[in-house]
Amino acid sequence: MTEESRPKQLTERLRRLSWQTLLPGVAVLADYQTARLRTDLLAGASVAAVAIPASLGMAQLAGVPATAGLYATLLPLVGYALFTSSRHVVVGPDGTTSALVAITLTPLAAGDASRYAALAGLLAIMVGVILLAAGALRLGFMADFLSKPVLIGYINGTALTIIASQLGKILGVKITASRFFPVLAELVRELDQVHWATVALSTVVLVLLLAARRWAPTVPAALLVVVAADAASKLFHFSDHGIAVIGHVARGLPHLGLPHAGLKDVSTLVLPAGGMALIAFCDTMATARTYAVKHRYEVAGEREMTGIGAADLLAGLSQAFPVSSSGSRTAVAEAAGGGSQVVGLTVAALVALVAGVATPLIQPLPTAVLGAVVVAAAVNQLSARGVVRLRKVHDTEAALAVAAMLAVLTLGVLGGLAVAVLLSIGVFVYRSIRPHDAVLGAVEDVDGYHDIEVHRGAETVPGLIVYRFDASLFFPNVPFFLDRVRTLVAEAGHGLRWLMVDVEAVTYLDATAIDALNTLYRELAAVHARLTVARAKQPIRTVFDSSGITALLGADSFFPTVRTGVEAFRQQEFDAD
Predict the structure, then answer these.
(1) How far apart are CA 366 and CA 246, in angstroms?
(2) Same domain? 351 vs 454
């Protein structure tokens, strides 16, 4: 290497590092394996076949022009692809955010369509800015409060909700309810209104899609079915036979710019935007983690937060409305074999083509076909086996999954997500307050000291209690620690000489814990018993030294292992005799 080439090479490395830092999705794409390009392109086409008509329906639900639905499926996908760490999530307008847009903006717009559209764009920009700021502040750890059981339950509940939301289209019945059980109840009342031609079409499409998934998984079935149904509808005039179709959609690409809104509108929308930002992130992260676990790779909370923030920001700047992850489109992408951001970029390109020149082509597409495609994708999201596996770990794990699923079905995706987060936090708090602990004893022919509840033959030493606390000791669990130790001391009676606390699992002590140890020392001294400590790591020893616990107990009360502590106790008892 010449001296002249080194500065150039260094500059090139810095340039690449800068792009990878600012746009982490680019770094992922840089390592893209071209061998899977064909699969991802076909998966993108399959998703587009669902996303294009679905986006029109979401626009109608949100109360904005149909073209805004296409725009919400265009640039947001590009923005998300640049930042995401997920290989499977597809973003776009979804039922939850669309419904929240309508609920939030209808009273503010007062029937003014242009003001409504401007507020929708502003709301999307504010959601994006909030998420981008949270990502910059590295608040992605918030997703860590979604445990695996809760994620499984949430995804199952969402899949069932998606299926229920499409039943009206599949059966040709107008359903006004949005939650799972009300939809079923309304459907039962409207059974006499079922349109049998629509049912027949939906059944054929659904059977073809499920059969292809089972016996020809590499075939882009959703794309082929949608194209065939669109052509058949145009050829045989399905709409003349009472089968609902998409209908007219205006052509044109979005113009980038800020919506016409004022500072007063910003202050009015702060709280709704904050709530929608939290919902969008949690929903996206829940979906991203589910597919990441299934396909064995990692996703980063900050990247997902930044990715969905960029998607919402671009949605607002392109005359659209807030977006989030789409469970149905992500399921379609995975079912078609998609496994990279190329899928989303392909969808964006096809949506741009359709929005610019080809909207007349989708007008004859039956809405029942769209419903069948979404249902087939949602079926693939269901995971009864996941719940069964959780039960093999622990009944409470399976119960958490079922509770999260029922929350989604009962309260809707929004309420269910809130319950899912609360359940995860509740489990974390409970296990922090009530951690595992054990009284230890020696087991014949087994090295070390073990839980006497697990090893029934474990032998304890008369006059000595070896107690292990399997968590950090701090203010929420200090009462539990003291109660457990006091119970053991009371059960031991007057014969107790030592209480040895095994703190190997204790990685943190706070001031409340130090006060508790001082209290425990005095209580044991009152019954002529000694408090000793085994297996304290260096950071914990440092806390003991600085807080005065070492001086209080005496340096000879600390032992590197339980075995050395037990031997010291036996030696003391022998010397006393």
Answers:
(1) 6
(2) no
Return the closest-CA partner of residue 426 out of 434, 414, 438: 434
Token pair of 504 as six digits: 């190997």
Contact 523, 493 (CB under 8 A): no
CA distance 395 to 555: 44
The residue from 427, 462, 497 where one domain ends is 427
Residue 189, judged by CB atoms within 10 A of its CB (0-12, 13-18, 19+), counts as exposed
Which residues are CB-neighbours of 575 under 8 A, at least 6 positions away? none
DSSP 3-state assignment of 143? helix
Distance CA 136, CA 351 (A): 30
Residues near 298 by beta carbon (within 8 Å), at least 6 away in sequence: 85, 292
Let me know whether 319 and 452 are in one domain. Answer: no
List phi, psi (to 5°) of 71: -65, -35
Q: Is 420 left (phi over 0), alpha (psi -120 to 50) or beta?
A: alpha
Count how many domains the chain has. Answer: 2
Per-residue pLDDT of the chain (577 residues; tens, 9 = 90+): 455 555 555 455 545 445 555 566 666 677 778 888 999 999 999 899 888 888 887 887 788 888 999 999 999 999 999 888 888 999 998 877 887 788 789 889 988 999 999 999 999 999 999 999 998 888 877 666 667 787 788 878 878 887 888 899 899 998 887 778 988 999 999 999 999 999 999 999 999 988 987 888 767 777 788 889 999 999 999 999 999 998 888 888 999 999 988 889 999 999 888 878 887 888 888 888 888 888 888 888 888 899 999 999 999 999 999 999 988 788 888 888 898 889 999 999 999 999 998 888 888 989 898 888 878 877 877 877 878 888 777 777 888 888 888 988 898 766 776 787 788 778 878 888 899 999 999 988 778 898 888 887 888 999 999 999 999 999 999 999 999 999 999 999 889 999 999 999 999 999 999 999 999 999 999 999 999 999 999 999 999 999 999 999 999 999 999 999 999 999 998 777 6
Q: Are residues 360 and 460 in the same domain?
A: no
What is the H or E stretch that residue 466 is in? Answer: strand 464-469
Q: Do the bridges between strand 530-534 and strand 558-559 make them parallel or antiparallel, or are there none, so unpaired?
A: parallel
Question: In whole angstroms, how far apart are CA 148 and each of 33, 155, 516?
Answer: 30, 10, 34
Same domain, yes or no: 403 and 453? no
Residue 423 and residue 447 share a domain: no
Q: Which two tokens stand for residue 553?
A: 């107990």
Q: 454: number of CA atoms within 13 Å, CB side?
A: 11
* 145 neighbors 344 (Cβ within 8 angstroms): no
